[in-house]
Write a structure and sequence with these properties.
The protein is mainly α and 423 residues long. The protein has helices spanning 6-17, 23-36, 75-86, 92-100, 109-115, 163-171, 177-279, 285-365, 370-377, 379-391; strands at residues 57-59, 69-71. The chain has two domains: 6-146, no CATH class; 198-365. It contains ten helices and two strands, in the order ααββαααααααα. It has a two-stranded antiparallel ribbon. Helix 1 crosses helix 2 (23-36), helix 1 packs across helix 3 and helix 7 (177-279) runs antiparallel to helix 8 (285-365). The chain is rod-shaped and about 145 Å long. The two termini are 30 Å apart.
Length: 423
């Protein structure tokens, strides 16, 4: 795995504080790191903050009050620690300048004086680090980079060569300077590519996991809806059965009322005829009117009961139609839930297919060009790095990088006993 670079730390830090990632901000941070001398620690802490984080360790001397510069286990945690310190309310001008994309335009002198414990108030005139500078030894001797297990070119330079003489040595190698440089850059590019692939694969798998979890929750909700629909259909059928029984009883009651009404009419008619015959007024006008009224009362009551029966039958028909509509709606809902279930099955396949496609794109679409690397490193730095490579054994591919904290270099001027406040 390639050694983390200051440029990667810049990116993470600026992202954590919500600042744009532009050249002005990167130049400012790299000059600040050079002012602190922070690239001498492997603890991903180029600004030498004392902000504690889970897993961080003390390095260097006690700055006073039990405050120590911290070494962090990962670049992300180191960037977050410096971001936390930057956003603690003591450095609002520095923070505002970085967020505006023009840090040099902010009035940061007093805040930088606080940050450095009185060590300095500005970074003007400090030569910034190259963003490709790495934390700790770059390669070999317990460094962080993983490279191939063989030298980049035949033969090591004689002891004591430096500057132009060392450059001439590499130019005269059988493989040639360009081949040596290309091989070196290829190693860096491959390491960076593998790290990029690993990160992107992790993100893709995490996102797919979130989608699958949401899908499982949706499927569980669908199953609950389907179960509720089954219960609703069962209940509706039972309710309709009870309603049918009620209508049947009501219809029997109407039949009994018709029979009772007819029997009462016949009884009353016979009693009236007997009374009229005994009284001798059967054939009188009053007798006839009495019998006519009795018959009319019976017919009127019967018609009223028939109208009630018709209204009852219409209500029964309405209930039947309403039940039929309920059943139809439930059937539609059942089909809708069935289609949802089919869709969730398709969605699960889509997640798997898209994850595979995304991982494929990551694998074949993340190629790193050598040209930007060559521009970043520069000729002099490249010669120095190649010299260190040939002078020390190269770490074999797959060897775990040494991430342990080391003691930082001596604090810059003004960072003595007064360098105490946590930042």
């Amino acid at each position: 795995m390639a050694a983390p670079t200051l440029g990667q730390w810049d990116y993470a830090f600026l992202k954590d504080i919500g600042a744009p990632i532009n050249q002005a901000n990167v130049n400012f941070l790299d000059a600040w790191a050079a002012r602190e001398g922070g690239m001498q620690t492997k603890g991903y802490n180029p600004l030498y903050t004392t902000e504690r984080m889970p897993g961080s360790q003390n390095v260097g001397a006690d700055l006073g009050g039990g405050q120590f510069v911290q070494a962090y286990p990962t670049l992300a945690e180191g960037a977050q620690a410096d971001a936390n310190a930057m956003m603690n309310g003591l450095y609002n001008n520095l923070l505002g300048g970085l967020r505006s994309g023009n840090p040099l335009g902010s009035n940061y002198a007093s805040e930088m004086h606080t940050w450095s414990g009185g060590g300095y108030s500005g970074i003007s005139g400090v030569q910034p680090y190259d963003p490709s500078s790495t934390f700790g030894p770059f390669m070999g001797g317990g460094g962080n980079a993983s490279t191939s297990g063989t030298p980049l070119s035949g033969g090591n330079p004689p002891p004591g060569l430096s500057g132009q003489a060392l450059q001439n040595f590499f130019q005269n190698q059988a493989t040639g300077k360009q081949a040596t440089k290309d091989a070196y850059l290829t190693q860096i590019a491959e390491a960076q590519l593998q790290q990029w692939i690993a990160d992107q694969s992790k993100y893709a798998n995490t996102e797919a996991g979130y989608q699958q979890q949401n899908l499982l929750l949706s499927e569980a909700d669908l199953q609950s809806q389907q179960a509720a629909l089954v219960r609703e259909r069962t209940l509706a059928g039972r309710e309709q059965g009870i309603t049918e029984q009620q209508y049947a009883l009501q219809n029997k009651e109407y039949g009994q009322q018709f029979r009772d009404m007819l029997r009462n009419y016949i009884t009353n008619k016979e009693q009236t005829w007997g009374q009229q015959a005994g009284a001798g007024n059967y054939f009188t006008r009053g007798g006839r009117d009495q019998r006519t009224n009795l018959q009319q009362d019976y017919l009127s009551s019967r018609d009223m009961l028939k109208m009630q029966q018709r209204s009852f039958l219409l209500g029964k028909r309405g209930e039947e139609l309403n039940y039929a509509e309920q059943v139809a709606k439930m059937q539609d809902e059942k089909m809708r839930l069935h289609r949802m279930a089919q869709r969730y099955g398709i969605s699960e396949e889509e997640i798997k297919t898209r994850l595979a496609q995304q991982l494929s794109n990551i694998r074949y679409g993340g190629l790193t060009s050598l040209y930007p690397l060559e521009q970043q490193i520069g000729q002099d730095q490249l010669i120095a790095d190649l010299s260190s490579i040939f002078a020390q054994p190269i770490v074999p591919t797959g060897t775990a990088p040494d991430q342990g904290p080391t003691t930082p270099a001596s604090a810059p001027a003004g960072h003595g006993a007064g360098y105490q406040q946590p930042h």
